[in-house]
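Example record for the data management plan.
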Amino acid sequence: MALHDPRDPNIVRSLDAVDFGPGVGPEIDRRLLGDVKGRRILDVGCGLGHTAVGLARRGARVIAVDNDVSHLGAARDLAADEAVTIEFHQAQPAELAFLAADHVDLALAITSLSFVQDLDRVFRQVHRVVRPNGHFVLSVPHPVVLCGRPEAPVPWDTEDLIGDRFVHTAEAIVMALGRANFAVDSLFERRNTGALPETLVARARKLGV
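Corresponding structural encoding:
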């Protein structure tokens, strides 16, 4: 099943597989997430709710977090339309104190971390709430997309906002995950129709406690 994104009617988002970003096919969902039925999943920065609702439709127990009230309203409406139950919270990605330690089997952050400058704070909180040996899966726009626009190229290592997004390179993500005591076990760089990658996807396993 697929739905049009109300922010852009030209974008169609599937509820049958997680939409990690341009160029990432549904096979990556099954490869990284597997069978989600009965698993407790945290969706960090749930946006309009397509990922959360899609996972709930597949039998997951979903906790969805977003700081934008309008996003949460749209996500709640979508959950009601699809007759699924989701636990919603209004919070910033690094504000997960309402969750107990080792509470979730899997955490996701699908494109939402491109709006966050300090990855370390988020990753430490996610590490705390994911159970030992649980996973954290994230996707962000590839730095090539943000930095390499012909009309306004910027340095690869910029710390400035590009539009409303921060640049996160594969190096920065892997290093920040390591500092938070995650071990990266999968990393994908995918393109859609062009010659350059558009989406960066990583999965990491929680180490320690």
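Summary line stored alongside the record: Strands lie at 2-5, 8-14, 40-44, 61-66, 86-90, 104-110, 130-141, 182-190, 199-206.
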